[in-house]
Amino acid sequence: MAELLKGKPVADALTEKNIAKVEELKAQGINPTLAIVRLGENPGDMSYERGALKRAEATGVAVKQFIYDVDITQDQLLAEIDKINKDDSIHGVLIFRPLPKHLDDRTICEALAPAKDMDGITSGSMAGVFTDSGEGYPPCTAQACMEMIDHMGLDLTGKKVTVIGRSLVIGKPVAMMAMKKNATVTVLHSRTTAEDFAAAGANADVVIAAIGRAKMIGADKVGSDQVIIDVGINVDEEGKLCGDVNFDEVEPNAAAITPVPGGVGSVTTAVLMNHVIAAAAK
Questions:
Q1: Which of 7, 154, 191, 280 has the lowest tally of Cβ within 10 angstroms?
Q2: Model pTM score
């Protein structure tokens, strides 16, 4: 039976450190503050927002909510983001996406100041991840994967890490972050041949699944005694939350595995607070 890698202990440990950092900053007259920008009332956005508010309250981070009508024009939203960029009391910004289809996602993302980009949505933040320039911050979920691995005490030096998925949200940045920790990284995706997919999955020490397909990663796509980090949040045919990994198939042969729900997702808000605090410290 695999070790179950739950997110709560990781999030709690991060929060404890963050509380101490917030207290230090407040003693200097700095109040770490996050701006949340939400358009409309998407249930997924609102669920994450509730979690972020709860984590912020526990950490001591202030939150300013900017809630706009879903049919706000692009010019209006750009003007609002400009105001937030210029507000020195706000250290970090989280913009909920995807945005409504009448808005140009890339234009809106690039309007945000990279120094206030808490979730890696700007080109500046991505450049920071790929070049170690220190600009911006990586996507919270990608860093949450690294936090899970660090909490285990697992040194990735010389380890084979297989990342399944190549999105800018998780796959590409988490691959770069694993390489920064001296891992040898293979990236698989939907166009990888079945033969290469199976070989890379079976030979890995660590598998990070982030392809966005419910239970796609079965026992035939991984090996044994591996650490499995499942980033996927999907709904199965029974209407239940599940990951990209077929947990029931993979768990018996794994060394350690994250559950869904209760795994990586629960660490993301703690990482978000960590980014806000770091931005405030700068």
A1: 191
A2: 0.93
